[in-house]
Amino acid sequence: MKDSQIRGAEIVIKSLVAENARYIFGYPGGAIMPVYDALYDYMDHIQHILTRHEQGAIHAAQGYARVSGQVGVCMATSGPGATNLITGMADALIDSTPLVCITGQVASHLLGTDAFQETDVVGISMPATKWNIQVRKVEEIAPAIAKGFHIARSGRPGPVLIDITKDAQTAMGEFNYVPCLNIRSYRPYPKLDDKAIDRAARLINQAKKPYVLFGQGVVLGKAEKALEEFLDKSGIPAACTLLGTGAISESHPNFVGKLGMHGNYGPNLLTNQCDVLIAVGMRFDDRVTGDVKRYAKQAKVIHLELDPGEINKNVKCEVAVLGDCRISLEKLTGKVDQRTHPDWIKAFRELEAEEKRVVVGNDLSPTKVGLTMGEVVRHINEFKSDDAILVTDVGQHQMVAWRYFEYKTSRTQVTSGGLGTMGFALPAALGAQLHDYNRQVICVVGDGGIQMTFQELGTIMQTKAPVKVVLLNNNFLGMVRQWQQLFFDKRYSFTELDNPDFIKIAEAYNFRVQRVDVRGDLRQAVAEMFVHEGPYFLEVVVEKEDNVFPMIAAGSSVEEVRLS
Amino acid sequence: MNKRYTISVFTENFIGILSRITLIFTRRGINIDGFTASESREEGIYRITIVVHTTEEQIIQLSKQIEKIIDVIKAFYYLDDEMVFQEIALYKIPIDNIDSGLERVIRQHNARIISAEKDFVVVEMTGHKEETQELLEVLKEFNVLEFVRSGRVAVAKPMETIDKYL
C-alpha cells in the first residue's frame, strides 16, 4: 500500500469538496458510516446538515439547489435511508432540480442476500433519477461522482444517485479527481438550428395576437435578461407557469399573469384567442393546458425547448426551436420586428380588472369575519424585501401565495410543482435559507403539509436558520376539501383535521411564535415576524371553507376558467 | 393507426440500461413483442432491437425518451419494410412420431435438423415470425414438445450508421 492511498470514504468527501459542494444534507447509518467518519476530518471544508429524516435532507438539498443554482447534495444510508430519498428524487426529476444523492450500500459480497438494511435502491430509483449507478470498487468512486455532478447540472438538470458499497468505502485507493466534461452518449445541449429561428421569427412578425408562455427553463437557462429583451422589442404579452414565476419581474409592462388551474383569468382564457403561441422553457403540463384537445387549437405554436423529449409530447408545435433558450431568445430578438400590441394587451388588462373585481378584492381585503389566506400574503408583501424567497408547500395556500406574492427577481419561488409533494416546504425553506442567511425566506405552509415533515423544525433549530414559517391553518386538507365541495357533493371524506397546538410545538423547538385569529392583529404580527432575527413561527387561523379561484376544473378547457 | 415498428438502440455497456429502457415501455403500458441485445460492430457498443405495435406518434416519443437515457447513444425506429430482419425458431420433436413426412416439411420450409438425440430431434428455422409460425402449425402433427422463437435481429435499409453519433 502506497502512502498516497486513502480510504474510499475519504475519496467521497474529497470529491464533493472538489466539486465545491458547500453543504451535504444527510442522515448517518450503518452502511454510510465510513463516509461520516471521513467527514469528521473535513468539517472546515464542507458543512453537513443533519436533518431529522432523509426526506427532509433531500427536500432541503432541493431548496438549496433551486435558490442557488448549484447542485444540491444529500446523503443517506442503505435500506430505509435510501428509500426515504425517493420522493425527493421523483420531485427533483419532474421539476428539473440538480441533485447528487449519495447512499451507502451493504458490502458487495452481501448484495442480493437480503442483508440487514439492504435494498435495491438503484432499481427502485431508476424511474426517479436522471442517472444512477452502484459503485463497488474504490477506484470507481471519484469518476462516478464526477460523472454524477456533470449529469445533474448539465442540459435539463435532474437528480442522480450514487450508491456506494461499504467495502468500496473502506478500501484504499488513489485520489485523483478529474472533473467530467463530456460523456460520449450524452448530448445535453442540442445544436441550435438557425432555420428554425428564421421560421419562428417570420411567424412572430406576421402574428396579430402573439402570446409568450414561459416556464422554469428560462431560470435554468439563465435566460431572464434575454426574455426581457425579447419582450421589450417584440411587445408581446407574456404569462408564466408556476415554476417560471419570477423569471421576469411581475411589474414588467408585458407581464400579464400566471397560467394554470388556479392561474389568472385572462392568461388562461386568452390562450384560446392568440394566433401565435411562443412557449419558452415550459412543458405544457396538464395543469397548464387543461383539456389538451381544446388547448390553443387556433394558434401556431413555437416551442423553445432544450429537451427534445418535450417537443410534440403534449402539444404539437409548428416550429420547434431546440436548444438553450437563452441563445434562441437572443437570436430571435435580433430577427423580430420592434412592435407594440396595445389592443391585445388591453384584452388581458380588461380580464385582469374583472378578476380583481370578482376574486382578488375579496381575497386580499375581505369584509367577512374569517381571515383569508390572501390577506396574509398581502401583509407579507407589505413588509418583505424585493429579493425575499417564498417557499410553499402544496395545496390551497400554495396557489394563493403564488397568486398574490409579489415576485421581483428570479429564483425567489421555491415550490413542488410537478410532483405536488406535501411536506416539501419546511425542509426546502431550510435549504433555501442556508444558501444565504441574510435573505428573507418565508415558508408558507398548510396545516396538512407541515405535519408531514414537522420534524425539520428541529433542523432549523439546530442550524439557527432564520426561516419565517407562516402556517395558514384552516383545520382542513383544504384543496381536497375544495374538490369535495365542488365535485363530490360536499362529502368531506377524511379531510378535516384535529390539529395539535402548533404554537406549543414550535415553542418547544425554540421558535419565536405568534398566533393570530382576528384581523386586527394580523398586520402587526407579520411586521414583528420580519423584524425578528431568528426563526419565527406565525400561525394564522384562516377561514375553514374558503375556495381558490379562478379555477379550471380538471378536464375543462382553458377558456372554461371560472371566477367563482 | 397501430403498426409494427422496430427500434434499434445503440448503448454503452452499462449495468441497468436494459431496465431503464424497458421502464419506458412499462410506464406507458406498451407491450414489447420482441427484444434482443448483442454487441454491435463497434466494440463496447451494444445494439438492442425492440419490436412493438404502436402508433407513429407514440414511436417517436418512445424513441426520444429512450435517447434521453444517459448511456444511450442513439435510437432509430423503422417500419418492417425499412429493415431486413430475421428471427430464429427451434422445435423439439420426439423420435417416435417421425416419419418420412418430416423430411418433406423440412425441405419445404428451408428448415434443418441441428441435433438428433436418442429421444428427440431439434429442428431449426430462421425467417419472419409468420414463417416460423407456419412451420409450427405444420409440425404439430409430429407433436412439438418444445418451441421457442427468438426476438428479432434486424439491420436497417437506410445507409445511416452509428459512427456519426460517436
Structure classification of chain A: alpha/beta
Uncertain stretches of 5 or more adjacent residues of chain B: none
State the end-to-end CA separation of chain A.
74 Å
- What's the arrangement of strands in the largest beta sheet of chain A? 3-2-4-5-7-6
Largest β-sheet summary of chain A: 6 strands, parallel
What's the total number of strands of chain B?
A: 9
**Amount of beta strand of chain B:** 35-45%
Helix coverage percent of residues of chain B?
25-40%
What does this protein look like?
Chain A: It catalyses: 2 pyruvate + H(+) = (2S)-2-acetolactate + CO2. The complex is a heterodimer of chains A (564) and B (166). Chain A has 564 residues and is an alpha/beta fold. In chain A, 37% of the residues lie in helices and 16% in strands. Chain A is built from 22 helices and 20 strands. In chain A, strands 3-2-4-5-7-6 form a six-stranded parallel sheet, with helices on both faces. In chain A, strands 11-10-9-12-13-14 form a six-stranded parallel sheet, with helices on both faces. A six-stranded parallel sheet of chain A has the order 16-15-17-18-20-19, with helices on both faces. Chain A is globular, with a radius of gyration of 24 Å. Chain B folds into two domains: 93 residues, Alpha-Beta Plaits (2-Layer Sandwich); 64 residues, ACT-like. Chain A, domain 2 (Alpha-Beta Plaits), CATH 3.30.70. In chain B, a hairpin with a 3-residue loop joins strand 6 and strand 7. The model of chain B has no long low-confidence stretch (mean pLDDT 94). The interface between A and B is medium-sized, with 20 and 20 residues.
